Amino acid sequence: MKMMKYAALLLPLIMAVGCESLEQEDAALPVVETLDATDITRSTVVLHGRTTGGVTNMLSRGVCFGLSEQVTYEDKCVSVVRGEGEFSAKTHELSPTTQYYMKAFAVMKNGEVIYGDLKTFTTSDFQLANLAIAPAEAITSTEATLKATILYRGDYPIAECGFVYDTTEGVSLESESESVVRMKLDNITDDMSGRATGLNYGTTYYVKAYASTAYGVAYSEEISFQTKNDIPTEIGTVVLEENSYTTIKVSSQIIKPNGTVSGYGLCWSESNALPTTEDSSITLSGEFSHTIEGLRPNLTLYVRAWAQNEAGINYSPALKVRVKSYDCGGNMVTVVPPAEFYIGWLGDPSDTENEAIYAAARDGLLSSFKSGHTTYTIPSKVVGLKPYRVAKYEVTNADYVEFLNFYKSATVKDGEYKGKALLYIDEGATMITYDSATNTWSVAEENANKPAVGVTWYGANEFCVFYGGFLPNEAQWENAARGNVYSNDPSVEMFRFSGSNTLADVAVYNTPDVAEVGTKQPNQLGLYDMSGNAQEWTSSFWVRNYYATYKEAGPASTLSKVLRGCRSQRGAEQFFHNGTREALNIDIFSAGKSNYAGFRFFDSNVEE
Asked: Would you call 437 exposed, middle or buried from its count of C-beta atoms within 10 A (0-12, 13-18, 19+)?
């Protein structure tokens, strides 16, 4: 009984002590520590903190940061769930090379914020590429293969990459040494490789790979290699002796053996600007020349001569050869279009009802321009048209006969259009004749220099493709016809027809037959017969409506292609305007149109 009496007296005291302990736990504040930031980049960082105790009364915890030492929870912050121990969170969208102040914090249920110590971190500058260079390979007395890998491309696009080397250590692009060599690679790939040429024998070279951006240059570690000490065979340059549509003949010579020549020959490649014997090659004996066969017109080929003695294989400088192609007898014109321009009806100062696109345009009244039912008038803005070349003259019968006799077929031989006729020879639309006994095509001398008409769209396209060119789209054709001239200055000459406001000056028209090419005045680019004579095929499918911003349309339901320039048999001036156009179904012969349909050769062989 006595024990129960004491227990009864102690119970309220125990309960009071327990409640006081719980109240103290609820009121406990955590210890907050600010830990160092990690994984710092130019725009991101991982922030860290630690809290000890006070979990029950804690709502959240995190790290706040800002540009001032008085940084608080009200500034930018990253938060995590309440808890005890270390925590971390990543933040983004920071500024590069900037010092930030930071504090870890814990937010309590009563709104109180507990802070850790003030610390700082500084974001890095932008990250350049990370490159690893490999030991030099295939080292001879005068050459070596250099290889590297781009492990990380960095924060900004790489504008250029390659290797830089010199005969002294500490090589860089910024070096003032006159002997430093910058070897820029043609393509930016993660696996970098290039052949260093023209080295001195028995010499140590120091090399770094580099990758440059608009904001700096990244380098690999520096390696070194030594060329062989023997004197290599001295070789002459490669000389182009013959060039046909499918073959080239090249030659070279050994100038000084400098030892015993154990082999010599030629090597070539379509893609490697410094071909080696690992590419296509031949070992020669006797005459130092070779005919490379099985090529295609307009192909670019790189050729080097090689010779081997005790020093190893030495190479001549590379000869860049473009295999023979149609070039209009050397009369190709390079056109560099404006960044933006319009095609279609461009306006006329006297046309008060419609606003002119260019103040200098002399396109005539819109109502006149629309009078041809096959034309379309709404202007279309052309953006980013790349430079191209265009033939001064329309493709002649002589040109097309040469093509046919080389091609040896009256139909397309391969590809998407295999089996399609090249010209309407059976319909009598062409001046070209075929002799089945000899399997040859010919044209009478008086017609040789007239434009090749009666050529199907497939024939015009195949001619251009065979010679490494293309039929132009409407933007390319009209830009050439207008002489590449666009202006809001009324004093600038913008002609209604291609080269003149007087049709008779520049066009063969109102006549039942085409005339020899180039008999009229040229336009501003020196191009003849863009108005009149033969009407010219384009690559564009016919659609009545241009897009507001020019782009190629897909196949039309009638499979018609656009003809430009109008044909000689017509006499109404509105049909010869620079912007007028006409459609012709490429699979249906039309005696009234096909025997006046010719074409002009375009290509993209514009030297950079």
From this structure: exposed
- 70 confidence band (pLDDT: 50, 70, 90): very high
DSSP state of 223: E
Look at residue 144 and give its three-state secondary structure: strand
Phi, psi of 323, deg, nearest 5: -60, 145
Mean pLDDT of 271-296: 95
Q: At 155, is the pLDDT very low, low, confident or very high (cuts 50, 70, 90)?
A: confident
Does one domain contain both 467 and 564? Answer: yes
Do 307 and 141 touch, CB atoms closer than 8 A?
Answer: no
Range of the domain at 155: 130-226
Q: Is the pLDDT of residue 22 over 70?
A: no
Whether 482 and 347 map to the same domain: the answer is: yes
The string of pLDDT tens digits covering residues 377-388 is: 678 999 999 999
pLDDT tens column, 328-377 = 999 999 999 999 999 998 988 888 888 889 999 988 888 776 655 455 56
The reply to whether 404 and 530 lie within a common domain is yes
- Shared domain for 300 and 332, answered yes or no, is no
Q: 1 lies in a domain?
A: no
On whether residue 11 sits in a domain, the answer given is no
- Domain assignment present for residue 238? The answer is yes
On whether the CB atoms of residues 303 and 281 are closer than 8 A, the answer is no
Is 6 within a domain? no
Average pLDDT, the chain: 91
* Shared-domain flag, residues 197 and 278: no
- On whether both 55 and 165 belong to a single domain, the answer is no
Phi, psi at residue 537, to the nearest 5°? -65, 145
User: CA angle, 115 as apex, 112 and 117 as ends, to 5°?
Assistant: 165
Measured in residues, the chain has a length of 608
- Among 524, 535, 530, 517, residue whose Cα is nearest residue 477: 530
